[in-house]
């Protein structure tokens, strides 16, 4: 059974290489919740698998709107019309959000204007978006509450904490304004830490957040702010010449 499920995912990835990730941002994203189950609406079950495979199976199924993964026994349940989330110890649930077509089209247009960046920069921004969803299980939280905690942490000079709370907001909203704020805090956190490798990782997060913000920006003002954050991150990374283009 597990072999068939993995084979399905591989075939889906090969056949649809231009579908979910054809543009600079994916067509679908996931909000994960810890100790939570989406009851009912099952359209498929797979056992002895992983969270990543469960998520990939759902994203590769046009009918799948959510999934629940039981971390205790490796069981995966794909769902098309589940009920309201319910508490379930040991379960990890994911809600699939389709990115609006207008956002996808705008991202494609904006990506063409970032030709001063390396292609790897755009790819890294896409990976960052997926990674944050697995780092911050934001399901069940309100974006407003997480944003308040971020502002509070920054007032207390806990810049890394403020960045992490804002990252959790990004998982919920995927809004360009939140991505830009995440980028600002990541750059500030990089300046606040003493370890060089950690600082560089934070500056890279700042660049990726700024790229993500620019790709999603709906207004010239938001786009300009994202470009400004991009320039800051590039300068912090020692890429001053590239920063001039931003």
The overall pLDDT average reads 91
Q: What sequence of helices (H) and strands (E) makes up the elements?
A: HEEHEEEHHHHHHHH
Total number of strands: 5
Task: Just name the CATH architecture of the largest domain.
Answer: Alpha Horseshoe
Q: Total helix count?
A: 10
Question: What would your notes on this structure say?
Answer:
The structure is a single chain. With 246 residues, this protein is α+β, with helices and mostly antiparallel strands. It has 2 domains: 2-99, Hepatocyte Growth Factor (3-Layer(bba) Sandwich); 102-245, Serine Threonine Protein Phosphatase 5, Tetratricopeptide repeat (Alpha Horseshoe), CATH 1.25.40.10. The protein is 57% helix and 15% strand. It contains 10 helices and 5 strands. The chain has helices spanning 2-15, 51-59, 101-111, 119-135, 143-155, 159-173, 176-192, 196-216, 220-236, 240-245, and strands spanning 28-37, 42-46, 66-70, 75-79, 86-98. It has a 5-stranded antiparallel beta sheet. Helix 6 (159-173) packs antiparallel against helix 7 and helix 7 (176-192) packs antiparallel against helix 8 (196-216). The longest helix is centred in the last third of the chain and has 21 residues, at 196-216. The radius of gyration is 19 Å and the shape is globular.
Keywords:
246 residues; disordered N terminus; 57% helix; 5 strands; 15% strand; 10 helices; Serine Threonine Protein Phosphatase 5, Tetratricopeptide repeat; alpha+beta; Hepatocyte Growth Factor
